[in-house]
């Protein structure tokens, strides 16, 4: 009866159990921006400047790289080759940015990697880290990332910047 402003441009993916996962237009943005690893040096340079500016004030920097549920579950659910290629570009961009920041001594937590490692199992069991009808993490997803952040920050505190890195996701 009322217009659905989200219907235009949205996608519906089908979960293995047959339930729909609604992907809103704004969630598709990263795959349509044509961002690629070639964009990484500029972003890494900016974040390095930011880190240095904050360090001059005695503030440590740690970067959390956050995916959308479309880039996490899309590779396993999407059927359109162009969209799969776009998801692949986003994944390559995030991984390249992660590597570039680490090379600059900036601690990172790559939540995309954390969620990707669990995506197939989550789809199989239906116990997703994201809400099925919303792009936000559910309590399980929040807990997963919070533990990874805490572990990574503790590693930096205990061992200095060279020890900052990806937490042990298998233990999560």
Account of the protein in words:
- The chain has 172 residues and is mostly helical.
- The protein has one domain (26-171).
- The chain is built from six helices and four strands.
- A two-stranded antiparallel sheet has the order 1-2.
- α2 packs parallel to α4 (81-103), α3 (69-77) packs across α4 (81-103) and α3 crosses α5.
- The longest helix has 23 residues, at 81-103.
- The protein is globular.
- The protein starts with 10 loop residues before the first strand and ends in a 13-residue tail after the last helix.
- Mean pLDDT is 86; it is low at 165-172.
Write out key terms for the chains shown:
172 residues, mainly alpha, two-stranded antiparallel ribbon, two-stranded parallel sheet, globular
- Beta fraction: 5-15%
Could you estimate the helical fraction of the residues in percent? 40-55%
Q: Could you give the count of β-strands?
A: 4
- How many domain units? 1
Apparent shape: globular
- Biggest sheet, in brief? 2 strands, antiparallel
Number of helices: 6
How would you write the strand order of the largest sheet? Answer: 1-2
Distance from first to last alpha carbon: 45 Å
The overall pLDDT, averaged over residues, is 86
Low-confidence parts? 165-172
**Class computed from helices, strands and strand pairing:** mainly alpha
- Radius of gyration equals 17 Å
> Which series of helices and strands comes N to C?
EEHHEHHEHH
Quickly describe the structure.
This protein has helices spanning 25-32, 40-55, 69-77, 81-103, 111-125, 139-159; strands at 11-14, 20-23, 62-65, 107-110. The protein has 172 residues and is mainly α.
